[in-house]
Structure formats: structure tokens, C-alpha cells
Amino acid sequence: MSRIELVDLRKEYGNVVAVKAMDLTIEDGEFIVFVGPSGCGKTTTLRMIAGFEDPTNGEIRIDGTVVNEKEPGDRDLGMVFQSHALFPHKNVADNIAFGLRMKKVPQDEQAAKVKEVSELVRITHLLGKMPAQCSGGESQRIALARTLVTEPSNFLLDEPLSSLDAKLRRELRAECDRLHDELQKTFIYVTHDQEEAMTLADRIIVMNQGEIVQQGTPMEIYSDPVSYFVADFFGNPAMNLIDGEFVKNGDSLEFKSAHFDIPLPAKFANATPGKGTLGIRPENVGIGANSGGATIEREVELVEPLGKDTLLYFETEESRPFVAVVEGTEDVKRHASVTINFPDDAIFLFGANGDRIR
Amino acid sequence: MAMTKSQRRISYAAFRYLVLTFWLLVVAFPIFWMVSTSFKPDREWFAWPPVYISENATLQNYLAVWGDVTTHSVDEQTGEIKTYAQSLQRPWQALGNSALISVIATTLSVLFGSVLAYGVSRYQILSEGRMFQLLMLRMVPPIVLVAPISIWYSALGLLDTILGLVMLYFLTTLPYAVWMSKSFIDEVPREMEQAAEILGASRWRTIWEVVLPLVRSGLVATFLFILILTWSEYLLALLLSKAQIVTLPVELSKYQGSTEGRVYGRQAALSVGITLPLIVVGMIIRKHLARGFSFGMVRR
Amino acid sequence: MTADSTLPSDMAPQLNSRAATRAQGVRRFKWTVLSPLIALMVFILLPAFVLQGYFSFFSFSIFDAGDDTSFLSYFRASEWVGLDLWKDALTDDKFGFAIIRSLLFAVGVTVGCFVIGFALALLMYRPFRGQGFYYIFFILPMLTVPIVIAYTGEMILYQNGPLNDIIGMVTGTRSDAQFLYKQEVALTTIAAMEIWNWTPFSFIIMMAGLASLPKEPQEAAQILGASKWRIFWEVQLPLLRPVILLALILRFLESMAEFPKTWGLLQGGPGSATETIPVYIFITAWQFFDISYGAVLSYLVLFMMMAIVMSAIWLLRREKKSLDAMYETKPQEG
Ligand SMILES: Nc1ncnc2c1ncn2[C@@H]1O[C@H](COP(=O)(O)OP(=O)(O)OP(=O)(O)O)[C@@H](O)[C@H]1O
Ligand SMILES: [Mg+2]
Fold first, then answer.
1. What is the CATH number of domain A4-226?
2. What is the ipTM of this complex?
3. Which of A72, A175, B87, C128 has minimal CB crowding within 10 Å?
């Protein structure tokens, strides 16, 4: 049983406020993923939990006890660093055994545990090597093993995979997932990568400029983003976001932009007119008039078949072309003129300040 | 009783300031004493209890040492000091010699050393073994060669010349120049130069615009370190100079050998003059020193 | 470069000639850069070496070095004595003591500088308020000229000087300790001055070393439950070994050659308490003007120092190799 609570947590570096008043409770066994743009305070938050940085204000509680005054080593935590942080002068087995030695575990028990954990992350063949002789992926596994072997209740992982190539990243991502399932420990994971966040998390914490802007399951975040920022961050390909203006037209509201004007669904009738953004996920864009909702005619400028799906690009001269995803079986030719359909319940509106308009 | 994190941090900080301040006093006291003595009138030089800060501070020591003794009458009551000052070598000449010799030698050393280091770093023009052998130039004490050198110099007419000292200073400081600048050059990623070259920059332009700005701090630190060595060199300067050339350390050592007894105030006034230039240079370039130097024995 | 010569030139003429031009350019660059160094070694150091060796077989001594041209006439008056002087040197007690004194001095100074410099660096390498201030101050002794330190040291240490006054104030009794003109302590006192002078050197190197250590392994150790002390022994110290070795070796060799303080202040005295190797050779060659015997001593010292330097270099190269291996670029996943 281990529960981590952050209460009104704040960190300032001189004039820079890295983390502003963060409140968060992390339940035992949860897989939490922090995401957000560079410099939003993810690492700072993690390092405060770990005890490497002292909060300017606020409390960190683990299992109900305030740990602000505890050393990192006394917090029942394990941490995996982006740079794997192995001890370059110790061989792999000694690296893994280090934590056990610090806890004065008897020699024979140490050996047994090292063996057990290296089987768990599949690195038994590396035990006699030096870290410099291991590849990036192997090093990260070793780092994981070194953390696992001390059996902490909570794991902190700061972009553990970001220095690896795409294939390895997927492989180790699956590994993390498997470990979490097997161990049922709390994982707090920081990443830049929305795909990692979506696949791993029980709960995603989206941060921006030192604040939590939204939290929820991956599906909640995906289907119900609270702001332009969150909508833009999740989903691949990214949501189509078109800047324009909401204009009153009799009883209903209409969206006008440089590219197209469409009437908006009735539920937005009472929204305030003014500048704003319309969003629709590429996979929700209808091609061919099929589901009611507004429609426009456009020429397909680029066709990108991906096998199962095909991406259609419109308005490619814009910095962000408008994208639609259709079934791979659909046969759409370049330069063909098609009907683009905006299903009512697929439309997101965001005000000029980026907040969602419901 | 176990201390909490913040208690431990506070007590560690207190301990640190205590130790550092103690060492600060150890470092500062001799310098303070030198400066303080240089302003003392002669009767306070040997006073007991010692005078820490003179209430009768005077410039007479500076005037006697640095002043033009033939036109300046120093101080009526210390006539002997006046003759004494005249009998010694001329500090201003020594200052000129010292400055000339050490600046030329240091410049040459750093210039050649860094170009050589660049060649070693990028084109391996010297093997690692040769690089270590280069260290011997510095690591063998100069006393073992100074006698035959002085005889050889006298045959070549290099004895008692600026050139003679410059050449030896160059040789004995080159190893440090090469090693220090190489450690800084090694830290500049080669990709950067390659990128510049692909963009069409010539070799020299690349060095000038890409490499140099990145190693400038390091080269400045190297320059200062070698300036320290050449400015304060004593043995070679003592033995390879006679009438024409005198450097400041040699000039100062004449006070000690003089038969007229210790003249602490004068000595201190000259010492301040010798020390000040290096300290001024050091303060001017202090931000370049912060990186320190490690001779390539660490990885960043 | 070597690969070029093994390639038949007609196989890849274009590539080959470009590589050859490049190699030629590098070669020209190499010799241009090295030529001043080589010239100086050949025309200054080499003749001095040869002369030194030659003199060591004569009874060449000069009593008046005043006139430049007189050297040769004195030399003509000297006679061939073969290996006599070499034999003398090997049974010369004063020389033996000088070597022992120098070694003791150098070891003491090296350890002193290193321990103080490393301790200060450990206290200071993490940022704190006032770091820059202390850093600059702690470098000052290195900027102070050794001979100045010697004389200033004397002003402070003499019997009626401020050090005795301060000791008196602290202990409450009048202190009139002799620090310089007493055989038992003279060398130690000079060593203390040398330590004061050169601690900054060790300090700067160790600061650079500590600052360059990667932070993550230390934090990893910390979160695995290692105390500060354990981290120091198990993570920092092993990674610093090459720098430490370098700081020790450079300081040791430099203090073997120390001259301005031992000679400038005490001329080897009192008695022969500060007669280190450089001082003894100096006295032989420049006070007794016994050039030949000085040459013999110099050669012996040269051999000894060469042996020390070679072992030092061997140690350093080994450390550097293991350091390079530790941070070698990773093999690709395969
Ligand atoms: N030691 C420090 N001193 C000063 N400012 C800092 C320090 N560490 C972080 N910051 C600042 O705090 C803010 C948050 O940094 P943090 O490292 O937590 O971001 P992050 O979300 O982890 O970013 P990234 O995704 O790039 O790793 C940034 O503006 C950063 O510049
Ligand atoms: Mg980060």
C-alpha cells in the first residue's frame, strides 16, 4: 500500500516558476504518465517527489507521512533516468547489486536477487560486462534492473526511452507495461511522447507551464480535451484545428474562416461569437455526405496510403494542412473533388483563450 | 539523534562557511601582510608587537624602490636607504624586461601550443606516446641543464639576452600549453567543424569562426597559467642573465642578499609591484578561469 | 594514409589523389608546426646535453664566470679525469641526503596540496552563495610569485613577526618560535610555503574534475540508499582517479624542481637543512664553480627523474585508457 500525495506543491528557481501549486493524489499501483511540452515542469515535479529538489512550498506525502524532510534514499522509491546513469566503472552485476549492498543485504541473497531480476528483464547474458560494452537498449534494461532489485513501492521514470530509436522504444515500452502488470507497483512516468502516454497510462496528467491542465484516462483525454492545447497534443495524426471566427446568424452560430464557412451544430447556438478555433479529428472527418452535419467540397491534394488507412490532405499550402483518415480500401484519387463532412458530435470549439467551448 | 534534511543542510552550510573562511584567512593574511608592510615607515618593520596596520602609513618605500632616485630625494633621515636603492638594479628596467620576456614567451607558447594541440586533436600529428614524451620538457628540473646551457649560450652570444630566456621559457612551458589547450579543443565536437565545412567555409575560417570562440575561455586560462610560470621564473633568469637583463624576481632576490640588513618595507613595496600585474590580469579574466583545467583527464 | 599506399593507384585515381593531397597537407602542417620546437631542441637542448656529458669526464671548473669568453680558456686548462667524478658522486653523502630531502619535500608538498585542494573542492563544487568569491580568492596564491612568497613568508615567520604574535594571542603566552633558522623545521616551513603557493593548482584541477562528473550516477546511488560518504568512495572517487593521479604527479614533479624558496630564502641552510637536489647542484656548479661535478650530478638526477617521469607516464596512460574505455561509444543494438 503506497499512496503519493502532492499538496499545493510549488517550485521556483529564482524568478522562474517551474511548478505552480500542484495538487495530485496517486493511488497505489497506478501507472501515472506526466506529459507536456518541454520546460513545463515534469522533471521538476518528479525530482521533488524523489527528493533531489526541495519544494519552495507545499508537501509531498507518501503513505500519509510528509517526506519533505526525508533523504531520497529513505523514500521507498526507485528511479530510472533518461541517461540510464549506470556506474561506468562497475560491471553490470555490481551495478545491479549496488542498492542491495547499500541496504546491507547478505552476499548470497544479493546474488540470488541479481539473478532473479536479470532474468525478469532478460539481461542475464550481460552480467559480466561493463556498461560501456552494452548498447543503449541494454543499458536501459540494466538501469531498470538496478531499480527493480531493491523492490521499491514506487517507480519514477523520467523519459526513460527518449534516447532510444523508435523500434527499441516500442519494445521497451511493452516491457514497462509488462513489468507494471507483474509487479502491481506505482509507476510515475514522464514522457514527451503522446503515444507512450496513451499506451501505458492508467491516468494521464497533462501539464503546461507548471500546472496540471487536465487529467484522466487516455480515452478521456483523447475524446474530451479541455483545451486547444490538450486537443492538439494528443492524437496521431493531430487534430485538425482551423482558426476563424464564430458569427451569429439568426438563431444559430456559424464558423467563418479563410478556407470555408460552415454552420455549427445547434448545441453551440448560445456560445459567444468572436474569434476562435474549430477542431475535428482526422479520423472523424467524413468523406462523402453520409452522416448529416455540415459539408464542403474540396479537391484532394495529396493521398498517403498507409495500408489499413489512407490519409487525405487538403489545403496543403497552409502550415497545417487539413487531414482526413479513410479506410485503406477506399479508392480516392489525387485531385479528385470530394465532399468533406463535419459530423455534429465530432466538432470541438475553442475560444480565443484556448478553452473549450461546450 | 537523526537530523532532518533541512537541519543537515544548514549545519553543512555552516561547516562549509567555517572551513572556507578559515582558509580564506590563511590565503589572505600573507598578501595582507605584504601590502601592509609596504606602507610602514622603517621603524615599524621590526616592531614588537608587530604593527598590523600602520598609523603612520607612508609612500616612502614605494618612492625609494620605484621612484627615480637620482632626481627624487627620498627621505632626509634615511640617507643610507637612498644609496642602497641606487646600488641596486633598476626595478623599472626589471619590470620592462619581465613583461617583455614573459609576454613574448607566453604568447609564443600558447600560440604554437594550441595550433599543435589542434593538429593532435584533429589529425593525430603526434601519437599519444609522443604527447606524453612532450611532458618531459617540463618535468625534468631545469637545474640539470642550466650550467651547460649557460656555457653554450655564452658561445652563441645568447647569454644575458631576452631571446635566450624567451626560447627556454617557450620550451619549458610548451607541454602545459599543448596539454591544456588540447583538453579544451577536444571538447569541441568535430561535427560542428564538419557542418561549417559542408556549408563551404574554408579550413582557416572554420577554425577562426567555429573552433576559436568555443575554446577562447580555455585559451585565456592557459595563457594566464603560463604567464604565471614565466613571470615568476627565478632559476633560469638568475643564471642566464648578468648585466643587461634582469627580471623582477631576480631583482627582488638582491634585497635578500644585500649586506645592509633586511629592508622589509622596501622588499614589500617591490613585492607588491611584482605581484600586482598578475593579480590584475587574473581578476580581469576571472570568468574564464571558472571552468578550471583538467588536462583532458576527465570526460564531460 | 597507409591504406592509400597499398591501393593500386589506377583503381581509384580520383579518390586516391585527393586523399594523398590531403595526407600531404596534413604532413606539411605537422612539420611546419613542429619545426620551431625541433629547431630549439636540436640547437639548444641537444648541444647542452652533449656538453654536459663531455664535461663530466674532465676536471672543469671556473672561478670567475664574469667574462663570457673566459669559459673556453678555463676549459682548456682542465684535464681528463675519466670516470673519477662519477665514482665520487656515487659515494657522495651530501648528494644522497639531498635526494632524500627532495623526495620528502616533494611527497609532503604533493600530499599537502592535494588534500587541502581536494577538500576545498569537495566543499565548493556545488553552487552556493559566495562560490565565485571564494573561488577567486583561493586562486590568489598561485598568482603570487614564489620568490615574493619566500620573502613575505620570512617577514611573517621571523621571531618578532606576526605569526608568533598571533600564536601568543591564541595561547596566551609569549611565543618566540624559530620557523626558518632552525635545522629541524626549516624544510617543513619551506614546504608549508610551497603548499600555500600551489594548493590552488590542485584545487582548480579537482574542481574541474568534480564539476565534470556526470550527476545522474550520483543521484542514482543516492536514491538507492547510498550515504554521501558511500557516494564519495564508490562513485566519485573511482571516476576521479585519472584526474587525481594527474594532480599528484604534476605537483610532485614540480616540487622536485623547487628552487626559489629553498635557495632564495635559505641558500640550503641552516646547515644543510634545505639542501635539496636543485640547491645542491646549484651550490656545486655556481658557488664552487665545479662545472664537471655539477654535470655528473645533473646527469644522475636526470636519469632518476626520467625513471620517475616514465613510470608516471605509464600510470597516466593506463588511467587514460581505462577512462576512454569507460566512455567509449556504444555498439549498435544487434
Ligand atoms: N536547476 C534549475 N535552475 C533554474 N531553472 C530550472 C532548473 N531546473 C529546471 N528549471 C526551469 O524550470 C522549468 C521546468 O523545467 P523541467 O526540467 O521540469 O521541464 P520538463 O517538463 O522536464 O522539460 P523537458 O520535457 O524538456 O524535460 C524550465 O523553465 C526550466 O528552465
Ligand atoms: Mg525533463
1. 3.40.50.300
2. 0.88
3. B87
